[in-house]
Amino acid sequence: MARLVMKFGGTSVATVERIKNAARHVKREFDAGNQVAVVVSAMSGKTNELVAWCKEASGLYDQAEYDTVVASGEQVTSGLMAIVLQEMGMPARSWQGWQVPLFGSDAHGSARIEGVDGAGILAGFDRNREIAVCSGFQGVNPRTNRIVTLGRGGSDTSAVALAAGLKADRCDIYTDVDGVYTTDPRVVPKARRMDKVSFEEMLEMASLGSKVLQVRSVEIAMVQRVPTYVRSSFDDPENPNPGTLICDEDDIVEQQIVTGIAFSRDEAQITLRRVADKPGVAAAIFGPLADANINVDMIIQVVSDDQATTDITFTVPTADYERAKTLLESMHDIIAYQSLQGANDVVKISAIGVGMRSHAGVAARAFRALAEKGINIRAITTSEIKFSVLIDAAYTELAVRTLHSLYGLDAA
Ligand code: ADP
Ligand code: ASP
Ligand code: MG
């Protein structure tokens, strides 16, 4: 007997018919004698609709009420899943975040999980192996008693945190692809499914744009040692494939230099021309952006030839682009730059692999390959196990495919 958490994403619960199909996967595990907690997302598209309603109601909506609205999508699917499981003859009940309870910080819209109390769910397991169907994405703040949500894609994090809280043997993330691929299979049909991927690489891939798992879920899986699989809810419930295991680097026998390519359209570029080249200028620019909670990612400062002025280029999330520009324009006199240029039709392409630690020249090969395709690089960053380039968005697919082949990742 094992204890399992099974998470179903938006496309896997998009209709009552799909919920019935997901329930057949649950039945397989239940019939095998396992204790099962299920975590569900909202029906696909639902959360976007709820977010749009908040924006329509007010340009400056109350974040706590936003959470009340957007958490409702998961309440619907948890109830429906419980009804379907009961209909199929299994003991089941729904659990909202506040009922579990799953505690979250008061950062509405992007709360961090502070703890999960699994006692109620465990009592149900002991009583009659009752299946706990939990609403993903939501929790409660223990101090304010308000509903909080965990950020977009947060049901992955609910599932892994619940698995840790229940000391589950495994967390299975069921989605619309049968595992983690070397890059988004929707963009590169030649992408390959991996049997295993290391925590470190998955963390980088998720934070650099591979939305197959929310970054926080990978962090929790890594720190709390939760064996986590990504697998397909569209497999035959009687004969499913195991999917991709996220695991320790040491458990992977054959290491590639580059294991995956990720891309993010969530980047915008800002360039300040002819900024005074003197001590304190970077602080004058990036201090106020940090105070305004705007995350700066890539930064390039050009060495000036006149020793008096320099150009500084950096990227911010698309959602903060207008805010960042307005802030910098309001500080024109203090920072003393000649002009501000911006672009949000850019994309960040990244290559990830633990093998980069021990191999030189990995990024240089990419620069050459992109140049041969006529793709101009606007900015570059590198770190221990990844490098990223910022390019025009129009070249996204060409660049991803070029790097995917370059590093030998294409399926035969
Ligand atoms: P869910 O609704 O189940 O949470 P998501 O849409 O959040 O599903 O995540 C699954 C999607 O992630 C896939 O349909 C795929 O297009 C995308 N994706 C991006 N990068 C990858 C990758 N490296 N491997 C697999 N899927 C990826
Ligand atoms: N429903 C939420 C979202 O769309 C959470 C999730 O699906 O993981 O972001
Ligand atoms: Mg998701």
UniProtKB/TrEMBL annotation:
<dbReference type="InterPro" id="IPR036393">
    <property type="entry name" value="AceGlu_kinase-like_sf"/>
</dbReference>
<comment type="pathway">
    <text>Amino-acid biosynthesis; L-methionine biosynthesis via de novo pathway; L-homoserine from L-aspartate: step 1/3.</text>
</comment>
<comment type="similarity">
    <text>Belongs to the aspartokinase family.</text>
</comment>
<feature type="binding site">
    <location>
        <begin position="7"/>
        <end position="10"/>
    </location>
    <ligand>
        <name>ATP</name>
    </ligand>
</feature>
<dbReference type="GO" id="GO:0005524">
    <property type="term" value="F:ATP binding"/>
</dbReference>
<dbReference type="InterPro" id="IPR005260">
    <property type="entry name" value="Asp_kin_monofn"/>
</dbReference>
<feature type="binding site">
    <location>
        <position position="181"/>
    </location>
    <ligand>
        <name>ATP</name>
    </ligand>
</feature>
<keyword id="KW-0547">Nucleotide-binding</keyword>
<dbReference type="GO" id="GO:0005829">
    <property type="term" value="C:cytosol"/>
</dbReference>
<dbReference type="GO" id="GO:0009088">
    <property type="term" value="P:threonine biosynthetic process"/>
</dbReference>
<dbReference type="InterPro" id="IPR001048">
    <property type="entry name" value="Asp/Glu/Uridylate_kinase"/>
</dbReference>
<dbReference type="InterPro" id="IPR041740">
    <property type="entry name" value="AKii-LysC-BS"/>
</dbReference>
<keyword id="KW-0808">Transferase</keyword>
<dbReference type="InterPro" id="IPR018042">
    <property type="entry name" value="Aspartate_kinase_CS"/>
</dbReference>
<dbReference type="GO" id="GO:0009090">
    <property type="term" value="P:homoserine biosynthetic process"/>
</dbReference>
<dbReference type="Pfam" id="PF22468">
    <property type="entry name" value="ACT_9"/>
</dbReference>
<feature type="binding site">
    <location>
        <position position="186"/>
    </location>
    <ligand>
        <name>ATP</name>
    </ligand>
</feature>
<feature type="binding site">
    <location>
        <position position="74"/>
    </location>
    <ligand>
        <name>substrate</name>
    </ligand>
</feature>
<keyword id="KW-0067">ATP-binding</keyword>
<feature type="binding site">
    <location>
        <begin position="211"/>
        <end position="212"/>
    </location>
    <ligand>
        <name>ATP</name>
    </ligand>
</feature>
<dbReference type="InterPro" id="IPR054352">
    <property type="entry name" value="ACT_Aspartokinase"/>
</dbReference>
<protein>
    <recommendedName>
        <fullName>Aspartokinase</fullName>
        <ecNumber>2.7.2.4</ecNumber>
    </recommendedName>
</protein>
<feature type="domain" description="ACT">
    <location>
        <begin position="270"/>
        <end position="354"/>
    </location>
</feature>
<keyword id="KW-0028">Amino-acid biosynthesis</keyword>
<dbReference type="InterPro" id="IPR045865">
    <property type="entry name" value="ACT-like_dom_sf"/>
</dbReference>
<keyword id="KW-0418">Kinase</keyword>
<dbReference type="GO" id="GO:0009089">
    <property type="term" value="P:lysine biosynthetic process via diaminopimelate"/>
</dbReference>
<dbReference type="Pfam" id="PF01842">
    <property type="entry name" value="ACT"/>
</dbReference>
<keyword id="KW-0457">Lysine biosynthesis</keyword>
<feature type="binding site">
    <location>
        <begin position="175"/>
        <end position="176"/>
    </location>
    <ligand>
        <name>ATP</name>
    </ligand>
</feature>
<dbReference type="Pfam" id="PF00696">
    <property type="entry name" value="AA_kinase"/>
</dbReference>
<dbReference type="InterPro" id="IPR002912">
    <property type="entry name" value="ACT_dom"/>
</dbReference>
<feature type="binding site">
    <location>
        <position position="47"/>
    </location>
    <ligand>
        <name>substrate</name>
    </ligand>
</feature>
<dbReference type="InterPro" id="IPR001341">
    <property type="entry name" value="Asp_kinase"/>
</dbReference>
<dbReference type="GO" id="GO:0004072">
    <property type="term" value="F:aspartate kinase activity"/>
</dbReference>
<comment type="pathway">
    <text>Amino-acid biosynthesis; L-lysine biosynthesis via DAP pathway; (S)-tetrahydrodipicolinate from L-aspartate: step 1/4.</text>
</comment>
